[in-house]
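Exercise 7. Predict the joint structure of the components listed below.
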Amino acid sequence: MYLAKVYISLKPTVNDPQGLTIKGALYNLGFTSVEDVRAGKYIEIRIEENDLAEAQQQVNEMCHKLLANPVIENYRFELEEV
Amino acid sequence: MKFGIVVFPGTWSDRDCYYALNDVLGQEVDYIWHKETDLSKYDCIILPGGFSYGDYLRPGAIARFSPVMASIERFVCQDRLVIGICNGFQVLCEAGLLPGALLRNDHLQYRCQRVQLKVENNSSPFTSQCKGEQVLRMPISHYEGRYYADDVTLAELEANNCVVFRYSTSTGDITEAANPNGSLHNIAGIINKKGNVLGMMPHPERACEPILGSNDGNLIWESIVVHL
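Solution:
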């Protein structure tokens, strides 16, 4: 069994108003060294699969088909045996 | 001719579309549950607004895999007409039937308001009854309507006259102030290259009678009827 931790972020060229708003709030709280904030998504998926390569391939396909929209988002993931 | 209105779990503008087409314009209309796959009796498919699958993950991301969507892809290949409104536009982009994507409004507010739309292309099957550069009034109602596409795609859209509607002032000027959501190039609606798929964020079905403040939306349905 594997646990996939999937991180989805907006592409650098895509404006992220949520990140900008968080950045403004952090500034107001005195964190003036904050240079940039980008908000994204984090998804955990448990997979009943014993082969690492197979799990990797499956998660990659999940990201490509559904979890991320390649027009606006990038993704990466980690796999952990559980 | 017959219109079909697709209903996903969470769709909310299906009845408004039905009212505009059937009650106001006297057209034949059916609801199509998203599990249906036979679209053979329809001439035009409408993907209405709403929050299909609760907008979970991304608006349209899950609806785009509903059984009806594979049939809609074939329908599009047969050069038949498909119009996606609001959430329907998002579904069409997620399905790759239209280029680009719809992101959260730049001000992070849900906007429900009247807007003005400049008709940039009145030679499409959806806009033939509009005058050139006519300004239409209809409402928007969305949180994720900021049109985005990369520079290459945008240039292609513009070069092929695929931008059909732009947010404008009442006199047709394309200004930042007239843009309610931060859409690139003030884009409110686009067609595909072949011209048989339209996606738009504003709601023509909610501008179907003068008592609603405008009946400009009927021009779109009337264009479709004339085309068919």
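Discussion. Helices of chain A lie at 17-28, 52-67.
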